[in-house]
Amino acid sequence: MASSSNKSKYHALPSRMFKFFPWTALLFSLIIAILYQSVESDNSFSDIVFHSSAHLPRVLVLTAHPDDESMFFAPTIRALVSRIRTNRIPMSKPASDPVRLSSETTLTSKITYTAHWSPATIPKVLYPYVNEHRITTILTFDDGGISGHPNHKSLPEGIRHLLSHQRYAFAAPPPKLFTLVTRSIPAKYTSILAPIWSKFTLYGIRLLSLEVLAVRIARGLGIELSPLISKPVTHRMPQVLVSGVSDYLAALRAMRQHASQLVWFRWLYVLFSRYMWVNEWVEVPVESLSV
């Protein structure tokens, strides 16, 4: 009897699995559909960097190490490189010349990987390049440095030094500075949940924008219509770029070119990091200082 009961349970297992298969397939299809296409904030990031009417927009992505572009900035580089001139400068020199995501690579100098770089040194290295190429926007790490690496955290300080001191005279208007938002450790490693949540958030904001537009049109026609959301979001929102599947795979291929860096924990990083999928940017106002 026991043997017969075990056999019936064994034969019932495939039917139970098949029962849930359509729902599993549907869920998997929805996830792929959500992840497949890249998306940006409505106030498109590429439009924000078009702030100079006198010159063609030129974006400088300033990284600390050669593999930073793949690990942290890939969603942005993929979004911008096909539309505007994008230059990338790592502040430290690689041992080889791996494949890049960006259209141009200029290496600056060999400097210490573990030290905090002087904010006065970075402008000396960058100023000739920024001025000669008439860079209109600089993208780099924020003060948290994403991972807290001292090299990463040095860069925004150095750029603020460059843009605020009058000793550095620019041939064109000084570039704008945007920094990549550092998230908490739990938020950093949310894998595909990060792009899914970010896309739902962006789509929700778009729906709210449509609601506001509909209310304005109705009131213009003399129809009193109250918005569903009585208090709109007023705090400053970061500019968000979310990669699609092809963008993520491109970043992964680029990262694989840095073979010496792909130790086991970096494999975990490329699998679980939100920065492989999502970039959030805020503009940093810089006031000019007299010397």
Short summary of the structure?
This protein has 291 residues and is α/β, with parallel strands linked by helices.
Overview of this structure, please?
- The protein has helices at residues 2-36, 45-48, 68-71, 74-80, 121-132, 145-148, 150-164, 185-188, 193-220, 245-256, 264-272, and strands at 39-40, 58-63, 85-90, 104-105, 137-141, 176-180, 239-242, 278-283.
- The chain has 291 residues and is an alpha/beta fold.
- It has a domain at 39-192 and 235-283: LmbE-like (Rossmann fold).
- Strands 1-7-8-6-5-2-3-4 form an 8-stranded mixed β-sheet, with helices on both faces.
- The protein starts with a helix and ends in an 8-residue tail after the last strand.
What are the main properties of this structure?
Rossmann fold; 11 helices; alpha/beta; eight-stranded mixed sheet
